[in-house]
Specification:
Length: 457
């Protein structure tokens, strides 16, 4: 039976290999836009009869300022060794997006309405249930649910060079990420924020009320500042997203989370011939109370059975970070994200009140190097998250007091990935990841393989 399963899968993988290598496939045209009314970017609509709009409803709505899209992402991932157990999961996320230009619809100039929602399903979570780590392995992992994400209104001012957004927001779609790294499954809201902030912070799959202001200084620089309710989930003994399962909690009274970022860009236009670069420098602060990772409120060690066992509390927390995307080879006439590019991210937070005090990400991306497959991309990335000195010292204190445990040191993830475009709006992505020290455990290195499929309509 096992051999029969292999035989059934063989044609699939052979076909995928032909797509990736370009064998038995004609040249694919690189597309910046489908040029279909109501559709932005590549979409499977361009491969469907009548551009996927047989009744013309989508075109009619777009003429009135209403556009929508559907994006389906599916991952089949297997933990081959290490971690907490072996096994395979299937997870999927269907996202619906709605954008309304209120000027076109009702004449309200410079106003935009936006909303999106998720339908999430899975047969298990690869990071939590099989690897037992903390770094992201597949960024769509979340509790199965149908949930509201963002819901906001944005007003542009200063002749369109600035905007103000208010409503239910997330931070991870505008702050604290590398644009180049987005092809990788493990790219997500950084671990250093996800494990240190209450509820993981305002990032997928959780959103929370907030406001954001953005100023663009020409085409080469921007400044963003946002304030959010500081805990999107609230008190929760389980995964935070299970305590705000439908995205409808709309919490307003938690201490604030504030984040700001300055962005600098060079050679981003299609007509530019120099190497493209994006530099982001940012920082965040949270105004709540944070538990000390090692000491109790009576001055004893938290691991001391004779102590109070109640953590010392600190007022406020913060983090600083920097991100760089640097093109190192640009083909003649190529875009800012074509050719060969490298990226890096580094972030620091204080050790005494945080589980992770240092994160470093980096990688390399190759794009559009095969003239027969100009929209394919491949590359490698690494995520390194270091447990804080205080958290590691707490584990050593436990050992000293006779508790059988291990000293957490770091977790590091290596990923190799290839994004193959089947048709515009449909990609398949074979993926391999190696995870060192999941959750700081030196004896559980894991290997994960799988494939992602993405459809955009």
């Amino acid at each position: 039976m096992r051999r029969a399963m292999k035989l059934r899968w063989r044609p699939f993988f052979c076909g995928l290999l032909m797509v990736i290598t370009g064998l038995e496939a004609g040249p694919l045209k690189a597309e910046d836009s489908t040029n279909i009314p109501g559709v932005a970017g590549a979409s499977i609509a361009s491969s469907l009869p009548n551009n996927g709009d047989p009744g013309g409803v989508r075109k009619l709505l777009s003429e009135r300022g209403i556009t929508y899209s559907l994006i389906y992402t599916n991952d089949v991932l297997s933990n081959l060794s290490g971690g907490t157990r072996r096994g395979t999961i299937d997870q999927g996320k269907l996202e619906g997006q709605l954008t309304v230009d209120l000027n076109k619809l009702v004449g309200w100039q410079d106003l935009t309405f936006y909303a999106n929602a998720f339908q999430i399903h899975d047969t298990g979570r690869i990071r939590r249930d099989y690897v037992g780590g903390m770094n992201t392995i597949a960024a769509i992992e979340a509790a199965p649910s149908t949930r509201l994400s963002e819901l906001w209104i944005e007003r542009k001012f200063l002749n369109g060079d600035a905007s103000f957004r208010i409503g239910q927001l997330v931070a991870d779609n505008e702050f604290f990420f590398s644009d180049l790294s987005n092809i990788f499954l493990q790219t997500d809201w950084p671990t250093i924020a996800a494990v240190n902030l209450p509820g993981g912070g305002p990032a997928y799959p959780l959103s929370t009320p907030g406001a954001r202001v953005k100023f663009d200084y020409g085409k080469d620089a921007s400044f963003l500042l946002a304030i959010f309710n500081g805990d999107p989930a609230g008190p929760c003994a389980a995964d935070p997203d299970t305590c705000n399962r439908y995205g409808l909690n709309f919490r307003m009274r938690d201490p604030a989370f504030i984040i700001g970022e300055t962005q600098f860009r060079t050679n981003q236009a299609k007509e530019d011939s120099g190497l493209a670069r994006t530099l982001k420098i940012g920082g965040w602060t949270h105004l709540g109370l944070f538990n000390d990772q090692r000491f109790a409120n009576d001055g004893t060690l938290l691991a001391d059975p004779a102590g109070s066992g109640i953590p010392l509390q600190h007022r406020g927390d913060y983090g600083i970070y920097g991100v760089i995307d640097q093109q190192i080879y640009r083909p003649q006439g190529g875009a800012a994200d074509s050719g060969v590019s490298v990226f890096g991210l580094a972030s620091f937070s204080p050790s005494d009140r945080n589980l992770v005090d240092l994160q470093i990400n980096g990688g390399i991306v190759f794009a559009g190097l095969n003239s027969n497959r100009p929209d394919d991309r491949f590359g490698a990335s690494v995520v390194y998250s270091r447990f804080s000195d205080s958290a590691s010292a707490f584990n050593q204190d436990q050992i000293n007091f006779g508790v059988p445990t291990f000293v957490r040191d770091y977790e590091a993830n290596l990923e190799f990935s290839y994004v193959a475009q089947i048709v515009p709006g449909w990609t398949m992505q074979p993926d391999f990841q190696y995870i060192w020290h999941p959750s700081g455990h030196a004896g559980r290195d894991a290997k994960v393989v799988g494939i992602r499929t993405m459809l955009k309509y």
